[in-house]
User: Which sequence fits this backbone?
């Protein structure tokens, strides 16, 4: 659907986006994740033809955006961070205007009704936009992006500023839209990206730091396998039994629960399943396991790992420069 | 292009803006009419019309200052420029909407013409050329206003810039006497007032028509350039 190749954009001396490449497949939801100022919006603006990149190509549905912007833009529906609404218009008037802008003046009424039904805003069609709540405004923004049934939807932080109920509604809506559209969405809410996206691009300082499925991302960045176990038995015996097992890197007491019940954190070699050996060894020593949890690296950990690591690396190199 | 123009016209007429500005224009032209024509007891409406541009000098900035600043404020420029429509069409659409409001205001002044036709024997040729001069000059004013509104996100600043620019193009004429030779010619080119005089005396000068149209074209072109280089870069 979209092929982005070595895209770069500089503002003065600031590299907003430098040399990023990725693709969006049909029917896929691709999430852009990154701290503020990572270049998410800049990238999205370039894909929508709002910003001219300094370098690189953007091909939408086989059409080069920079060569034939008019044709390429027809395949894109865009919702910026703040929905681009005219407060003095009614919802219907606004959507009709969007139809005309996108070059479908005929049958505009049917099209407006179609997108209003999709977004659940038909009840407010004759109300002035300025009198509507933030949640409705966001939906109108999405409805406007859906006009003309574009193949690709680009949603810049679609749930920002909404209450939890509205967030859930918008997410359900995005999920259902993915059946017929390919979607790129940006967010800095990790659970949201995790729940919605098929693939994630983590951006940091204008570069792609990682690109993969949410599951693979948490797997890849896990350097050790971690377990948490609660065992009933004398502390020393438990520590000895666990640490004498093969493949164990470290074990420590992290929680005191009862007189002889403790919580332990066990770290083993990567990709090694420690659960079975642990169970048999402790059972043999008649030290019952009361709880055992595999600790996975959450997307949040991965995100912090990537963004913080890069920052510290850079600071270190800066420090060296100063010396 | 007409999509944009239509939306802007709705914006003008759904709010009190167009009515207030048009009312203001009609009121002041009405004053001039009663002073020159009724009190002066003369059907020569062109003397009253010669001062219309000064009124419009104040109105044009107010009519145009929101055209692009409002889009920036609402964030709707993202909607427009991510749609399959060219920057040229957007600029022209907005410019024409302001022109149409101006033409509507001018057409309402035709009541003055009707009155003098009923009451006396005016020179219709001079009236025609005066109207043509006012239309062309008005379009030039509006193009400056459109240009100013693309420069900033603040309506008031846009209004002040266009008013300042218009005042400059109007008053630069006064500097003519201080210069000679090439600089005098240059000032003549800059002066919006210079080519207006023939229209008042009933002459439709081709050079005047071309001057105003190119002046308008230059400012619309500059607007397109500003949007391309500052908004989309």
Assistant:
């Amino acid at each position: 659907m979209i092929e982005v190749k070595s895209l770069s954009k500089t503002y003065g001396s600031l590299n907003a986006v430098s040399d990023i490449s990725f693709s969006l497949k049909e029917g896929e939801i691709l999430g852009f994740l990154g701290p503020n100022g990572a270049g998410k919006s800049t990238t999205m603006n370039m894909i929508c033809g709002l910003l001219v990149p300094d370098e690189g190509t953007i091909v939408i549905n086989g059409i080069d955006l920079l060569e034939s912007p008019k044709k390429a833009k027809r395949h894109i529906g865009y919702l910026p961070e703040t929905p681009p609404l005219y407060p003095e218009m009614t919802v219907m008037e606004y959507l009709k205007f969007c139809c005309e802008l996108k070059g479908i003046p005929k049958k505009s009424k049917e099209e407006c009704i179609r997108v209003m039904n999709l977004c659940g805003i038909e009840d407010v069609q004759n109300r002035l936009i300025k009198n509507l709540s933030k949640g409705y405004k966001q939906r109108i923004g999405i409805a406007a992006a859906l006009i003309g049934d574009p193949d690709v939807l680009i949603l810049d932080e679609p749930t920002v500023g909404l209450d939890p109920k509205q967030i859930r509604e918008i997410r359900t809506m995005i999920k259902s839209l993915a059946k017929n559209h390919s979607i790129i969405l940006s967010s800095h809410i990790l659970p949201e990206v995790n729940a919605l996206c098929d693939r994630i691009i983590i951006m940091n300082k204008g570069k792609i730091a990682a690109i993969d499925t949410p599951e693979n991302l948490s797997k890849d960045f896990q350097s050790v396998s971690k377990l948490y176990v609660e065992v009933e038995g004398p502390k020393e015996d438990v520590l000895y039994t666990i640490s004498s097992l093969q493949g164990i890197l470290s074990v420590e007491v992290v929680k005191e629960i009862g007189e002889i019940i403790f919580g332990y954190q066990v770290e083993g070699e990567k990709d090694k399943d420690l659960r079975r050996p642990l169970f048999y060894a402790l059972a043999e020593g008649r030290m019952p396991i009361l709880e055992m949890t595999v600790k996975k690296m959450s997307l949040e950990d991965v995100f912090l790992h990537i963004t913080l690591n890069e920052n510290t690396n850079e600071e270190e190199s800066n420090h060296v420069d100063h010396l | 292009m007409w999509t944009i123009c239509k939306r802007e016209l709705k914006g003008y007429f759904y709010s009190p803006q167009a009515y207030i500005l048009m009312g203001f224009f009609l009121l002041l032209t009405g004053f001039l009419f009663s002073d020159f024509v009724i009190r002066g007891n003369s059907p020569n409406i062109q003397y009253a019309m010669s001062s219309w541009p000064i009124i419009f000098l104040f109105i044009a900035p107010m009519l145009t200052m929101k055209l692009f600043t409002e889009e920036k404020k609402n964030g709707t420029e993202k909607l427009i420029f991510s749609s399959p429509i060219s920057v040229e069409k957007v600029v022209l659409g907005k410019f024409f909407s302001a022109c149409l409001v101006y033409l509507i205001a001018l057409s309402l002044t035709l009541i003055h013409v009707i009155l003098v036709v009923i009451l006396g024997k005016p020179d219709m040729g001079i009236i025609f050329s005066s109207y043509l001069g006012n239309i062309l000059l008005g379009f030039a004013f509006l193009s400056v206003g459109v240009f100013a509104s693309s420069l900033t996100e603040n309506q008031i600043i846009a209004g002040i810039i266009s008013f300042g620019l218009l005042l400059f193009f109007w008053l630069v004429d006064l500097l003519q006497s201080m210069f000679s030779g090439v600089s005098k010619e240059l000032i003549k080119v800059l002066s919006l007032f210079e080519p207006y005089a023939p229209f008042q005396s009933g002459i439709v000068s081709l050079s005047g028509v071309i001057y105003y149209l190119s002046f308008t074209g230059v400012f619309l072109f500059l607007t397109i350039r500003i949007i391309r280089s500052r908004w989309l870069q």
Notes: Chain A has eleven helices and 14 strands.
